[in-house]
Design goal:
Killer Toxin P4, Chain A, Transferase(Phosphotransferase), domain 1, 6-stranded mixed beta sheet, 5-stranded antiparallel beta sheet, single chain
Length: about 525
């Protein structure tokens, strides 16, 4: 009996250490995204050779991961008309064994692409695998951008959002500065008790500047996630994730504080810059004082007429009897909907709008939003721009409705701008988002997904409302406006046009010749 107790104790201690140190296998093979390029003989001249090359690159990557204890690998095969590049990367907090298991599952999934596909990719929580004809290793533009967020709201949303933003912002700064371009860290939410775990990674085939571009876009796209307890943003070159549930071992975290705080030389530069700036500010103030004291000129410099706000009419006052008569005594039959400020009834006319009327609505909406965004003394974001809130009077003059005082705030959340600008496309199609169907899909797709698919195949005129008379509109003008709508919904907020730029694009021909929209951000719940 005395001999058994030490052995039992040893086994118990060993088992406990084995569990607590994360030896339990978890390759994190929750599938987040899968995509396959369509067959194209202009890209792949010989499918047999191309597929043989794909299998060869997958075997080489498997060997690199297993034999060299690596978390990432690349392989290239083929010359002439059938070259292929393949890239694999797993999260650095995984064990090499789990990394290999994730690769096996990813390779099996990616082989499900049709034999003629010239490219394919699969993204899991634990790894990323992609192949493509040609070379994409140095790619720094967002071609596979996607954001996913959980279905659980965060507790104490304000404190949680602030903490998550700070944590991801720090990762955005630190990740490109770390060898291997990856970092796992965590931060506790004040007065909450929750801990937020976060991870960021770039593929190591890009430069430091390319990694910074990727994680900056990822952080910007994740703004919409921060009211939820978990979120992910990923692309062809980066992966960012946060969660209140730990998805890596504590011994995998690093202290990124030194990488996000300025060093002493930066402090010195800041002090010197402050002194120089102070002197410059004093000189500017003296010059400004002298300018204010100068004799006033009676002349006024005319402002530009980008938004033509002088054409916008003021509010019209209606009597109670007018309203009662127009709504048939406020009957439910005439009721269109109900918002925070009351009920909306339908001003008798029915029918389809012609192209000129739709164009005027698009331009008028852009003018109104540009005024709110850029000409008012504070930046105002409406937050609920949709066709239901674009009203027309008897003269077809546009009114932007349902703007309450809670919406009068300054914001940098450009995800909201993307959502409201999508309605340029909605006016053209004359359809609700979920009514659209492509390639026989039973459930249909969101408008933005449909518009992008049609644009990629150069068939975006199929988006146009079938009730419009083709003789009433210019084909190139309609195509241009669809492309402007796609420009407004690009994944990176930094490259979307402002509303004043949208107006210029709408009113001038030929400005889109050298501008092409990139893939929009497609939001899905996980």
């Amino acid at each position: 009996m005395m001999l058994r107790c030490p052995i039992t104790l040893f086994i118990l201690i060993f088992w406990s250490c084995w569990i607590l140190n994360g030896v339990v296998s978890d390759p994190q093979t929750n599938l987040l995204k899968r995509g396959c390029s369509p067959p194209n003989q202009f890209v792949v001249s010989n499918y047999t050779i191309f597929n043989e090359s794909l299998n060869s690159t997958l075997r080489e990557i498997e060997q690199q991961i297993g034999d060299q204890n690596k978390h990432s690998a690349t392989a290239r095969r083929g010359n002439g008309g059938s070259p292929i590049s393949t890239l694999f990367q797993c999260r650095n907090y995984l064990s090499v064994a789990d990394c290999g298991r994730c690769l096996d599952i990813a390779a099996e999934q990616i082989r499900n692409c049709s034999a003629g596909s010239y490219g394919g990719h699969v993204v899991y929580d634990g790894c990323f695998l992609r192949y493509e004809a040609g070379d994409f290793y140095g790619e720094t533009t967002g071609s596979l951008t996607k954001v996913l967020y959980g279905d659980q709201n965060a507790r104490e949303a304000i404190a949680f959002t602030e903490t998550a933003q700070n944590l991801l912002m720090n990762l955005q700064t630190a990740t490109p500065r770390i060898s291997g371009f990856f970092a796992a860290t965590k931060m506790q939410v004040p007065n909450n008790g929750e801990t937020i775990y976060a991870f960021a990674q770039c593929v190591n085939t890009v430069t430091q500047g390319g990694c910074l571009d990727f994680v900056t876009t990822g952080y910007s796209n994740m703004q919409i996630c921060f009211t939820y307890s978990e979120g992910r943003a990923f692309d062809a070159g980066s992966f960012m994730r946060y969660s209140t549930t730990s998805f890596f071992a504590d011994n995998q975290t690093i202290d990124i504080t030194p990488l996000v705080k300025p060093d002493s030389s930066s402090n010195k530069a800041t002090i010197i810059g402050g002194v120089v700036g102070g002197v410059a500010l004093a000189l500017i103030l003296l010059a400004l004082f002298a300018w204010i004291r100068r004799p006033k000129s009676p002349k006024r410099v005319p402002r530009g007429d980008i938004t033509e706000t002088s054409k916008l009419k003021g509010p019209v006052t209606y009597s109670y009897q007018d309203l009662k008569s127009a709504t048939k005594n406020f009957s439910d039959e005439n009721k269109l909907g109900e918002g925070g400020f009351g009920i909306v009834y339908k001003e008798k006319k029915k029918g389809s709008l012609d192209w000129k009327q739709r164009y005027d609505i698009i331009l008028g909406t852009a003018r109104g939003l540009a005024h709110l965004h850029e000409e008012f003394h504070i930046c105002i974001i409406h937050r609920d721009i949709k066709t239901n809130n674009i009203l027309l009077d008897d003269d077809m003059q546009l009114r932007i409705a349902d703007l309450d005082w809670e919406d009068f705030y300054q914001t940098t959340n450009l995800i909201l701008a993307q959502i409201l600008q999508e309605h340029l496309l909605k006016i053209i199609s004359g359809r609700k988002s979920k009514e659209l169907k492509v390639d026989g899909d039973a459930e249909g797709e969101f408008l933005l997904q449909t518009a992008w698919k049609l644009y990629e195949s150069s068939t975006h005129l199929e988006l146009v409302d079938s009730t419009l008379d083709p003789n009433e509109y210019d084909v190139e003008e309609v195509k241009k406006i669809i492309e402007i709508g796609l420009l407004c919904t690009q994944a990176s907020p930094a490259i979307r046009p402002t509303m004043s730029e949208v107006i210029v694009l709408l009113q001038n021909k030929g400005l889109l010749e050298n501008v092409r929209p990139t893939m929009p951000l497609l939001l899905e719940t996980n």
